[in-house]
Write a structure and sequence with these properties.
This protein is an all-alpha fold. The chain has two helices and no strands. The longest helix has 19 residues. The radius of gyration is 16 Å and the shape is extended. The N and C termini lie far apart (35 Å).
C-alpha cells in the first residue's frame, strides 16, 4: 500500500503561457506548495541545527516537517 504525500498543490501555477512568447498553452505547475513552505523554513532550520551539522539531512527533514505542519494547519477550520 502506498500513501500519497499531500503537497498542497502548485505554489505558483501558470495556466496559460502562450501570451509570454513561449509558444505553448500547457499548464505548468511549478513547485509544490509543500516545497515552497519547506524552502521558506529552511533558513531557520539551518540556523537552528547549524549549517555545519554532521547530519546535513537533519535541517532539511525539519524544514519538510514544518511544511507538513503548515499544510495541516491550512485544513483546520478558522477560529
Amino acid at each position: 500500500m502506498t500513501t500519497t504525500q499531500d503537497d498542497g498543490g502548485p505554489a505558483f501555477p501558470q495556466h496559460d503561457l502562450s501570451g509570454y512568447g513561449i509558444g505553448t498553452s500547457e499548464r505548468v505547475s511549478g513547485m509544490s506548495l509543500r516545497d515552497w513552505f519547506a524552502g521558506q523554513a529552511l533558513p531557520w532550520c539551518l540556523q537552528e541545527f547549524g549549517s555545519n551539522a554532521d547530519d546535513m539531512e537533519q535541517p532539511h527533514r525539519a524544514a519538510y516537517q514544518i511544511a507538513d505542519a503548515m499544510l495541516a494547519a491550512r485544513k483546520e477550520p478558522s477560529r
